[in-house]
Amino acid sequence: MSDIASHAGFGAPSRRRAMPGFGLTLGFTLSYLSLIVLIPLIVLLAHAAGLGISGLWKVLSASQAIDALLLSFGGALVAAGMNAVFGSLIAWTFVRYDFPGKRAMQAMIDLPFALPTAVAGIALTTLYAAPDGWLGAPLDALGVQVAYTRLGVVVAMTFISLPFVVRTLEPVLEQIDRQYEEAAATLGATRWQCVARIVFPTLLPALLTGTALAFARAVGEYGSIIFIAGNLPNQTQIAPLLIAIALDQHEVGTATAIAAAMLMFSFLILFGINLLQSWVRRKGGYRGA
Amino acid sequence: MAHEPVEAEGGMHGAVCVNARAYRSVTTESTFVRRLLIGFAGAFLIVFLLLPLIVVFAQAFARGIGAYLAALTDADSIAAIVLTLKVAAIAVLLNTAFGVAAAWVVAKFEFRGKNVLISLIDLPFSVSPVISGMVFVLIFGAQTWLGGWLIDHGVRIVFAQTGLILATVFVTFPFVARELIPLMQAQGSDEEYAALSLGASGWQTFWHVTLPNIRWGLLYGILLCNARAMGEFGAVSVVSGKIRGASNTLPLHVEALYEDNMMVAAFAVASLLALLSLLTLAMKAFLEWRHGDEIAALQGGR
């Protein structure tokens, strides 16, 4: 590569000068990034800082805000856990087994990414509505209420973050060399021991990454949740809904404080995911999400 | 489960004399466990993915095709369709230009802070959609000095179409870039250097060498970007004044109809968006199947 560059005869000491467009593309990238993403986020954080510690505390210590934040983060944790279990199961069946309908199921996996969240929201609400929804009716007979309860919030969060674990695990599972399982089996390990002691440890970093991505998505989710959650203060209000309500009532300070708290938590999660991914990359083979 | 004896030529052995089914590979599970796992996975996908999708169409056609078409040809629905197309077109165009520029600078050059830049590009994915819309209210809202000044000069951003576009651009910001960056990094720069050494200009090199190499990856990114742009709800709901026929995109129109208890109309409009998502998935699966090696670096969730 560098050979060609020096033969190009520009007399350039480095490859950088032979390839045009550095200034243009870097300039455009940085200005656009700053205008659309960085400056708006900094403005938000500056507004939050303007409230002061006491101002932030006043908003965030209100029971409605605490409950909403707890629901967003707690619900997301449960949903991510559900997806860790079922996502692993789905990825396993996709990679290891062949069965009729597999191609269709694989194509369907990304539906939560493609289906607009408002559509998912009203569909889930209708599906789980208590007296006569397709799933709401049988669940109602069993005494389980999903729509307009916290369970509904978890269901919507599970739906929206479903693809992450499957999509992160699939490529790693495909790369696993079955030699080790074969070797363990010849040494007398049962199938369960092979899976638990050989396959699972290999998958663990990717599983954690996928689960963390699912968690991060579920925490901030809005559209698919608000319909099935209803709007009960201290019960089914998620943090983003509280922000939307505050903005609607022109309580910009309240909205800013909750948003800043969410952003801080999200950045911490993001930082954790980055650490996880560099750990995965060090273990080799897997190219990150 | 019973553990079968393992022999070097076990497969052949089994096929010839003993009951073939008694011999299975040591790296898979018994038929019973296999069916059980497939059953669980299938049931989970049917309950969580298929049923919600079917509900949309079942509700949309609950009162026949006439009511369905009437809901879609309603003036407010048409206005929402037009606005959604317009907002998505502008957002996709801007983010495509950005994605190509960002991928070029990241893939073709070495510079300090490159990894930070890559992380910052992904930032909007970890911001809640409501917050993505809210930041523009904080900047351009009527109560801010900039917003106030602009309104005095006849420019409305929040509660107007510009706000919808800004919020959509924010939310769909990383899609094209994160598709192209790993692809262009994997492809390297040899072909570009060859073109340059033969006397091609920078733009000629881009149009005739780079673009043909990345076209399928680019299309893939645009596809995902567009799906999100047309379907975005949280971010636009904060910046839209929700004026029917004027500042409601399709997802906001769905919400408005749903809250008015106009179920057939709400689901009819929702079915349009559901069809769009199915079309997106089909095109995505086609691109992965037909041009998988040219899209490359596709692993992982987004």
Compile the SSE list and pairings.
The complex is a heterodimer of chains A (289) and B (302).
Chain A: H1 2-7, H2 15-18, H3 22-60, H4 63-96, H5 102-108, H6 111-114, H7 117-128, H8 136-141, H9 150-160, H10 162-175, H11 179-186, H12 191-220, H13 223-229, H14 239-248, H15 252-283
Chain B: H1 10-16, H2 31-60, H3 64-73, H4 75-108, H5 114-122, H6 129-140, H7 145-152, H8 161-171, H9 175-187, H10 190-197, H11 202-231, H12 234-239, H13 250-259, H14 263-295
Put simply, the count of helices of chain B is 14
Structural domains of chain B: how many: 2
Average pLDDT reading of chain B? 87
Distance between the termini of chain A: 28 Å
Radius of gyration of chain B: 26 Å
Radius of gyration of chain A using CA atoms only: 24 Å
Number of strands of chain B: 0
Instruction: Just give the CATH class of the largest domain in chain B.
Output: Mainly Alpha
CATH architecture of the largest domain in chain B: Orthogonal Bundle
CATH domain class of the domain at 57-177 and 203-283 in chain A = Mainly Alpha
**Shape by Cα distribution of chain B:** globular
- In CATH, the topology of the domain at 57-177 and 203-283 in chain A is named MetI-like fold
Shape of chain A: globular
Instruction: Specify the structural class of chain A.
Output: mainly alpha
Tally of individual helices of chain A:
15
Task: Describe the fold and architecture.
The complex is a heterodimer of chains A (289) and B (302). Chain A has 289 residues and is mainly α. Chain A has a domain of 202 residues: MetI-like (MetI-like fold). Helix content of chain A is 78%, strand content 0%. The two termini of chain A are 28 Å apart. Chain B is an all-alpha fold and 302 residues long. Chain B is globular and about 65 Å long. Chain B has 2 domains: 60 residues, no CATH class; 232 residues, MetI-like (MetI-like fold). In chain B, helix 2 crosses helix 14, helix 4 runs parallel beside helix 9 and helix 4 crosses helix 11. Chain B has 14 helices and no strands. The longest helix of chain B has 34 residues. Helices cover 73% and strands 0% of the residues of chain B. Classes of the chains: A mainly alpha (289), B mainly alpha (302). The interface between A and B is large, with 113 and 108 residues.
